[in-house]
Amino acid sequence: MYAIVEIAGQQFKVAKDQKVFVHRLQEEEGASISFDKVLLTANGDAVTVGAPVIEGAQVSAKVLRHLKGDKVIVFKKKRRKGYRVKNGHRQYLTEISIEDIVASGAKKAAPKKEEAPKKAPAKKAAAKGDDLKKIEGVGPKAAEALVNAGIDTFAKLAKADPVNIKEILAEASSRLKHLEPGTWPQQADLAANGKWDELKVLQDELDGGK
């Protein structure tokens, strides 16, 4: 039996005990997770197609590890313009193992299955709750790199090690290597606790976050 399921914005053909690499998930390593956006299931000659998803179908999986993909080099050049830009990128990934595929109609009355679609939007809303660009020295590209690495709130940034932050920025783009995140956790701690006046006083003393 196999299924086609949408995971983190991508569609995968999966079967039981198969290992799949998907875009970085928020769940911790070892956690169990389920996906209800099942587009198709097939068991021998019996094929069920959703419209667009199959009601009641579900794919259960276990998070094995978080990792980075292979480096991809992006090189841009404009002839006779003297323009050359070379950037490297490594995608943040999560490896999961498919544990079970539940076909349409199975456990239809289970309350957890009804609650799952409601919880997903709540997580997305929380991820957008903190604007990291309010931290002195964090621009749009730096904020995007932090979010991709799982640092999407002031509280998480406050606990982050500046050395690790610098590594995340360097991996995301060579243009971010010059940033100095030494004061970012301190600023983020003030923002997380709502101390905006103290944050403004601190930022007035900084120059580009330094």
What does this structure look like?
The chain is of the alpha+beta class and 210 residues long. It is 29% helix and 32% strand. It contains six helices and ten strands. The protein has a four-stranded antiparallel β-sheet, with no helix packed on it. Strands 3-10-7-4 form a four-stranded antiparallel β-sheet, with no helix packed on it. Strand 5 and strand 6 form a beta hairpin. The longest helix has 17 residues. The termini are far apart. The relative contact order is 0.13.
Key structural traits:
single chain, 210 residues, alpha+beta, four-stranded antiparallel β-sheet, 6 helices
Percent helix: 25-40%
Rg over C-alpha atoms, rounded to the nearest angstrom: 21 Å
Separation, N- and C-terminal Cα atoms: 56 Å
Assign the structural class, choosing from mainly alpha, mainly beta, alpha/beta, alpha+beta, or little secondary structure. alpha+beta
Q: What gross morphology would you assign?
A: globular
Please report the number of helical segments: 6
What is the compact description of this entry?
By secondary structure, the chain is an alpha+beta fold.
